[in-house]
Amino acid sequence: MKKHLLLSVAATVAATGAFAADLPSRKAPPIMVVAAPTVSWTGFYAGVNAGYSWDRTSTTDIASSPIFIGVDPAAGPGGGPFANTAIGAATGATGIFGAGSPGHFIGGGQIGYNYQFGQSLVAGLEADIQGLTGGGNGVGVSFGPVPSPPGPAGTAYQTILGNSKAIDYLGTVRGRLGYLVTPTLLFYGTGGLAYGQVSSATALYQDVSSPPGPNLQPVMGGASGSGTKLGWTLGVGGEWKFAENWSVKLEYLYYDLGSQTNSFAVAQVGPPRIALQFINIVQARTRFNGDIVRAGVNYHFNFGGSAPVVAKY
Q1: Whole-angstrom Cα distance, residue 141 to residue 95?
Q2: Share of the chain above pLDDT 90, in %
Q3: pTM
Q4: Nearest to residue 216, comparing CAs of 280, 143, 158?
Q5: Pick from 220, 222, 223: which is nearest to 268 by CA?
Q6: Where are the domains of the chain?
């Protein structure tokens, strides 16, 4: 009897377990988690920029010196030289004179490529070109005393100088190295080659300003030049990628294109006697360097290296 009872209980338990196995499971299915796309700075980009530029040097350095001093033929062999007039004219045309406006609006475009190393470092290469508004002009007046002889005490050469300078366009080719403060915010340093089309000009007028000084003819001369100059640039900036394909940046650059020198000669001829009194050589040196603050917007093409989308299950 006991044996039949045990067999009945075992059969009941087995049937119950089989029935439970057929019931649907109450365990929730696995939840699929899709991670947000990883922000990547790797790839090509292009954009536009605009800002303001300040000239570090808005003057022209001018130096004048005699290369020939004549001798008064009326004084006979070994007669008196015209050194006083030559030195007076050279003194009046030597100094630092204004060459124009210190500030310009600037705008243009840029292209570049970035490569992201790990989670924090971004290196790249960028080329840009900009136009600058206008140039500048300056006028200076100075006096060079002419001791007697040949004229009374207090005689002086009056010099009027006109100078101008301009940068028609300015471009750079720079490397960039930056650190990602966040996945979308990049701070970077930059530096490399700068180039630009520059022009400068100087015009000079001189005469004796203190009558009754020596009866000398006015002296005039001038020169101008233009060309492409090569130099260097350094700067810093920040860029924020506010969308998958778009970023904005704020950047500061210092540039130095070196100097341009224009040279010309002026000659003084009598009266009171027709004679070549002196020839002075004048050199006008204008430097092209300055600071740029500009903002820009870039479109990132996301080819040449884009970030994968990572999914987890």
Answers
A1: 10
A2: 58
A3: 0.79
A4: 158
A5: 220
A6: 41-312
